[in-house]
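User: My advisor, Dr. K., asked me to get a structural model of this assembly before our group meeting. I'm new to this, so sorry if the format is off. These are the inputs:
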Amino acid sequence: MVDTALADIGWMDVKTVITGICLVIGCFFIIVASIGIIRFPDFYSRIHPAGKTDTLGQSMVLIGLMVYEGFSLVSVKLLIIIIFIFIANPTATHALANAAYVAGLKPWQKGDRRK
Amino acid sequence: MFESAALAIILSAILVLYRGIRGPRICDRVLAINVIGTKTVVLIALIGFIYERPHFMDIALAYALINFIATIAFLKYREMGRLD
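Assistant: The format is fine. Below is the predicted structure of the whole assembly, which you can bring to the meeting.
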C-alpha cells in the first residue's frame, strides 16, 4: 500500500517541488536585494545587497531551473552561468567601490543626511 | 511557476530602476544598471523555460558576459579617462 502511494507520487513531482522551493527562495532574495538598494542610506551600503544578496538569489533561481531540467546540456550551460555570476557580480561591485573611493566619495556616518 | 518567478524578477527590476533614475551620483546609476543586467540574465533563462526553447541559455550566457564587460569598461573609463 505504501509502495504504491510512493510510486504514485513519482520522481517528476519531487523535482517540481524542489524547483518551486528554490524559485521561491531565489525570488525572495532578489526582491529583498531590490528593497535594500532603494532603502540604504549611501552608496557604500547600497553595494552590499547588490553584491551578496542579489548573487545568491539569482543563483538559487538558476539552481531551481537546473533541478527542473535534469542532467543535460542545458543544465551544464546553466551551471556555467551560475559560476560566472558567482565570480563576476562581486568583482563588478568591488570595481564600483574602488572607483567611488578613487573618486573621493566619503562614507555615510550616523547623523548625516540620507543621500 | 516560472511565470510567477518572472513576474517577481520584473517587479524587482522596476524597484531598482527607481534608484537608477534618482541616484544622486553616477556610481548609483552604474550599480542599478549592473543589477538590472544580471536580473535580465535570469529572466532570459526563465523565458527559455516558459516557451520551452533551450537556445535561450546561450543568449543568457552571452548577456552575462556582455553585462560584466560593460560595467568594467565604464568604470575604467571613469577612472582613467580613456579606454585604450
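One thing worth pointing out at the meeting: Chain B touches chain A through 42 residues (CB under 8 Å).

User: Perfect, thanks a lot.
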